[in-house]
Amino acid sequence: MASVSLSSRGNVQSRMKISDAEWQTRVHLAAAFRVAYHFGWNNRITNHITARIPGTGDQFLMNPHGLGWHEVTASNLVSIDFAGNKLSHPDAALAPAGYNFHSGILKAKPNVNCVMHVHATPGVVISATKDGLMIVDQTGCALYDEVGYHVFEGYAQEADEVPRILRDIGDKHTLMMWNHGLLSVGSTIGEAFSFMRKLIDACELQERLMATGAEIRRIPEDVLKFTRQQTAEKRRNKPYSDIEWQMYLRLAEQLDPSFAE
User: Fold this and answer.
1) Contact 153, 161 (CB under 8 A)
2) SS (H, E, C) the chain
3) How far apart are the first and last CA of the chain?
4) Which pLDDT band, with edges at 50, 70 and 90, does 138 fall under?
5) pLDDT tens-digit profile of 158-185?
6) What pTM does this model have?
7) Strand partners of residue 176
């Protein structure tokens, strides 16, 4: 996938004076926005995907407020640090709520390099149910013991909410924010993206099952646990869904290669 990760960098990269590693992260992050938009996860200017800049502990990339996810490119992502200093695009606007908890998670979890938050309709629907997510199929078993829950407190722009978000996600990869939406984290952009896709798909499946009015056949707890262990074995000592992420990069390029500019 070198053609995707390094394409169109030339003059833009030189003008922005960034490293090859940061440029590749920019390209991959822009691809995540484009593919997520293609899947219908966000069609407004809200919500964020952030990624730590390689080689730094306190710098990350974030989409500027005002752009739709279909408009995000590698070069218009804003670099920012945990103190709130814009290291690129000084005139860009950043959404306070997004900066608040994304920076909080990245700061508190050095092993996390990507945070993704969406208000995809299936996720909001299930977040508004009393009991939350039900895992009802084989694919969803990868989410067993991977979903935390966080109570709705209003816009997540208050600094004192961040510790509660961190408490509720713990060491899991996903978080259902009650009456709000979904969040995922990963050691790579691909890992966070793949967990988010599984969570949204599981919510959509549950939504459809609930609409039938039929009694839902539940998977026994021991089978849920065993199947999740089988999934975990496949990703032992490596980021989750690396191969799958390569497919999403190819999809982004096929949809519109301008994301890499």
Assistant:
1) yes
2) CHHHHCCCCHHHHHHHCCCHHHHHHHHHHHHHHHHHHHCCCCCCCCCEEEEECCCCCCEEEECCCCCCHHHCCCCCCEEEECCCCECCCCCCCCCHHHHHHHHHHHHHCCCCCEEEEECCHHHHHHHCCCCCCCCCCCHHHHHCCCEEEECCCCCCCCHHHHHHHHHHHCCCCEEEECCCEEEEEECCHHHHHHHHHHHHHHHHHHHHHHHHCCCCCCCCHHHHHHHHHHHHHHCCCCCCCHHHHHHHHHHHHHHCHHHHC
3) 16
4) very high
5) 788 999 999 999 999 999 999 999 999 9
6) 0.92
7) 149, 182
Tokens of 96: 């306070």
| 50 φ, ψ (degrees, to nearest 5) | -125, 155
Residue 212 CA: distances (Å) to CA of 120, 126, 128, 205, 216: 21, 15, 18, 11, 9
What's the CATH superfamily of 2-256? Class II aldolase/adducin N-terminal domain (3.40.225.10)
| pLDDT tens for each residue of 202-236 | 999 999 999 999 999 999 999 999 998 888 777 67
Asked if residues 206 and 126 have their Cβ atoms less than 8 Å apart, the reply is yes
